Amino acid sequence: MKGLVLAGGAGTRLRPITYTSAKQLVPVANKPILFYGLEQLREAGVTDIGIIVGDTHAEIEQAVGDGAEFGLQVTYLRQDQPLGLAHAVLIAADFLGDSDFVMFLGDNLIEGGIGHMVEAFRTDAPAAQLLLKQVTDPERFGVAELGPDGRILRLVEKPKDPPSDLALVGVYLFTSAIIDAARRIEPSWRGELEITDAIQRLIEDGAPVRASHVEGWWLDTGKKDELLEANRIVLGTVERRIDGKVDARSELVGNVVIEAGAEVRGSTLRGPCVIGEDARIVDSFVGPFTSIGPDCLVERSELEFSVLLRGCHVRDISRLEGSLLGREVSVSPTDRRPYAYRLMLGDHSQVEIPGGP
Which CATH entry fits the domain spanning 238-331: 3.40.50.1100, 3.40.50.2000, 3.40.50.300, 2.160.10.10? Predict the structure, then answer.
């Protein structure tokens, strides 16, 4: 069995972060989202991996390399335009050959891994096996309509009027039959070759298509709030580890991770939280569910439920929460008059400031 990991796409819902970084490399608990999926494939015994890449191919190839660090053999497959998941399958057709394969969306996280799903697929040998999860906003996803017996009747991609609240989770298992099915579909109203249409073709052909329900959490990290929630959930699984320096004036409460080279002085850290390599936390409070990336500086400030990417500087800020800061961001007050907010923001930035009379 092979793996097909989708790591193309522009990541428009995470702009402006993704103007300068691949969305699959945005960190959750200080580890790129993509790495979790690669590790879950390896743990399921799937080690021959094709990665679909787009405009951010250089960054992803640099981060993953030849896959040896993950115990994988990686082949990169270029998708010049994001023309749909079924289009990605067609691009990978030569790599996949006649093999069964797992298709894993590179910005998804699933509790407990995929080993049980791979084992069930190998045992039952359907043409396709899908994971479904109840969601509150099914119009954002591919959606399955089930019959009274639980059989899949039809699949619809991002429907305006969803037939159910059962979304397709971003992990699929296929035989090579999906490649032929993808060749026999037309672009959708979005101009893309939808994997839901290809699976629907399998259903119409009478091929066995199985579905199972996700009991634990499934995280699609395509937007800021979703990424912060993923960070919260994953941090809830970390165990206390102190590899950096913590002075006697500091207090660490709960599951706090201090990476090598990091320094904490005169501060209170309340876990779960992670402080990256060579970061400095000085005279500050870092609250639960916060990930501070490598080389960051937090000084005389309070942070909670936030993610700071590499090289951020936060100084003299009384309270920062529910925030996602990109690489090399600086946040600090000013004594210049007249008093005013002074901002330099990229396209699609979001800023919330205290209201006043």
Answer: 2.160.10.10
